[in-house]
Design a protein that fits this description.
The strands form 3 sheets. Strands 5, 6, 7, 8, 9, 10, 13, 14, 15 and 16 form a 10-stranded mixed beta sheet that branches. Strands 1-4-2-3 form a 4-stranded antiparallel beta sheet. It contains 8 helices and 16 strands. The protein is globular and about 60 Å long. Helix content is about 20%, strand content about 25%.
């Protein structure tokens, strides 16, 4: 590890971009993974890749040489490449929308040697992520194929102009069939795995505004099939909000969701969360695009088991 000072001329720069500037050949994805994994510290503290640096900051980071940049590329199994190539929901010269499989991490890290970003780069050179989904979450994920498209989509995400609709199944007593969860969220204290869990915390304690709208589509005793529309895009927002409400998502190990139906035998349940629909304006033409993913297999199985009506996609307003 090494500790480097931030020069006054670099003040205000994003941490991940500063890392790439001082580490020749460092991929952006790796710079961001260093931050997520806590390998980079600013003034001794773990911070996000988007942190803006100050001139007096001291940054601790791993050693990096140009030789590391030429290390052999990670070999991605052909089956994974084929799976993602078949997962395209929409594609043109500027944008790709994928139906991300559950279990595939968006970026490498936490024991994963490769992520969706690396798979996509092999299939569609130049494609880049515009947002993220949790590893266990399936559904609509937007890739930009050009720098201009990436910049335009980044602006729209920041302005809240990308509308997302999820399907979720929660367990517990959900009194209201529809409503809005308005709990500010912040990352947990830096103690083991709890650092990765979002917690309800007021603005005075570092919490950031987070709002999630939902309506119930069907229920079976303590199980509820929901349509969920996050107004903001905080990390783990849907998972943390419903856990805080006392009705965690089924299969959510991080937030203590129901792990089995009935008896405790058998394999654990998958996370019942799918990015079902996404609506956005095309970054070049301005045309409104609404992309809908097929209802994921776990939801189909549950609908069949409890004779719930299948969710029907509706137009999303922008």
């Amino acid at each position: 590890m090494q500790v480097l000072p931030v020069k006054p001329a670099d003040a205000g720069q994003r941490l991940d971009r500063w890392l790439r500037q001082i580490c020749p050949g460092l991929p952006m994805g790796m710079a961001q993974r260093w931050c997520r994994q806590g390998l980079v510290r600013v003034n001794g503290k773990r911070v996000a890749a988007s942190t803006r640096l100050a001139g007096a900051d001291q940054v601790k980071l791993p050693h990096w040489t140009s030789a590391a940049a030429s290390a052999p590329a990670v070999v991605i199994p052909a089956a994974v490449l084929e799976q993602l190539a078949a997962a395209v929901l929409y594609q043109d010269a500027e944008v790709i929308v994928l139906n991300k499989p559950a279990g595939l991490p968006v970026q490498a890290g936490s024991g994963k040697r490769w992520g969706l970003d690396q798979v996509a780069a092999q299939l569609w050179p130049g494609a880049r992520l515009t947002h993220r989904l949790d590893q266990e979450t399936s559904g609509c994920l937007i890739l930009a194929c050009t720098r201009a498209a990436a910049a335009a989509l980044a602006r729209d995400f920041a302005a809240g102009e990308v509308a997302k609709t999820y399907l979720a199944v929660v367990s517990g007593h959900l009194a209201d069939p529809q409503g809005t969860i308005d709990f500010a969220l912040a990352k947990g204290q830096e103690v083991g795995a709890d650092f990765e869990r979002m917690q309800v915390r007021g603005p005075e304690a570092g919490g950031r505004a987070a709002r999630t709208h939902y309506r119930r589509l069907a229920r079976q005793q303590q199980l509820h099939l929901l349509e969920v529309k996050p107004e903001t895009g905080r990390t783990h927002q849907i998972r943390a909000h419903f856990a805080a409400l006392g009705v965690p998502l089924v299969g959510d190990k991080k937030y203590a969701g129901l792990s089995h139906f009935g008896a405790a035998e058998g394999p654990p349940l998958p996370l019942f969360l799918q990015a079902w629909q996404v609506a956005f304006r095309h970054p070049v033409t301005g045309q409104k695009l609404t992309v809908v993913a097929p209802v994921a297999a776990p939801f189909l199985t549950l609908c069949q088991r409890y004779q719930w009506p299948l969710p029907v996609a509706e137009a999303i307003k922008l």
